[in-house]
Amino acid sequence: MGISFSNRRRDHRHHRYHNQPPPPPPLYYYSDPTSQQPPPQPQHSNEYGQNLSLPPPPPPLSQPPPQINYGQNYNQNQYYCPHQSSPYISGYHQNVWNNTMMRPVLIRPTPVPQPPLPYVEHQNAKKVRNDVNVHKDTVRLEPDDLHPGYHLVSFVFDASFDGSFTITFFAKEEEKNWTIVPHLPEAFPPTKVPFQKGTAQKFLQPPGTGIDLGFFSLDDLSKPSPEEVYPLVITAETVISPNSDSEEPLVHQQITQAGLEKTGDGSYKGKVMKQILLFEGARYELHELYGIDNSNTQGSASSDLEDSSDKECVICLTEPKDTAIMPCRHLCLCSDCAKELRFQSNKCPICREPIKELIVIKVESSDEQL
Fold it and tell me: According to the UniProt record, where is the region Disordered (predicted)?
């Protein structure tokens, strides 16, 4: 009786275990060790004060994920479930407490506080009476008809009292006693000429006392020397008699220091650089103020009405101008607007130079005495 092993071999072949497939490759990839590592991610704080760092961005997939054959291992009861990484959203970070997504907090820089404006001194100007005034835009040199080649000084002036003019070529002012000292007294001696009180008078230097400009260059005549020697100095002096015999007479002076320029027609005109007023033992340097004009004090009432708009403040257009900004003197306005300007800015709105002080100037009306 023979024995058949066919069924046994069939059963053995049916229940034979197969080799397990190799595990799938990991889902991460190694980068080139020579490449530069990315900078560390900034840390953020959640609502509980913990520092959370953003997860690194997922690497780009250079090849497709491996295919997994689930049917091959189904009969062997071997299941394979690949590990799935947590989702990553650019620009967000995950709160580990309540599993919510939050936007990153943008921290804006704190604005730097502006320094306080420097204090601008506000003071009243002292009123000084000028007995004689030389109109500096009228200073000229006229040819001397009796002495060819020489020139004589001429200008227009106003005087409230009688006095005298002293014409000096190439002179300087002493710092101690404010007197005018000629630099070339032998070649150009000072010339003293009396005058009477009046307005809009024309002065002309006497013939024979002028100067020959042919010995000097135009550059030497147009500006003072390094020793402060001016080509032309005009000294106007008034002497006021005292009220009693015990008092000394009052001597007031206005000193005009100028250079000489040649015009296109060949004539010479004066270029006034400085005007000084000596009054009651004090020295004052005169400057023009843009916007304040006292020329209407000698005019009629109709001229005051016509020019009333020029006397109003350029800011509020209602109050009269009585305050000037120093030292540039580019703007005159009322005292109230000057106070507001002092707290808003310390620079002139015209030239943007720093304002050192504010000077209050009271302009007299036409019915007041000069």
Answer: 1-76
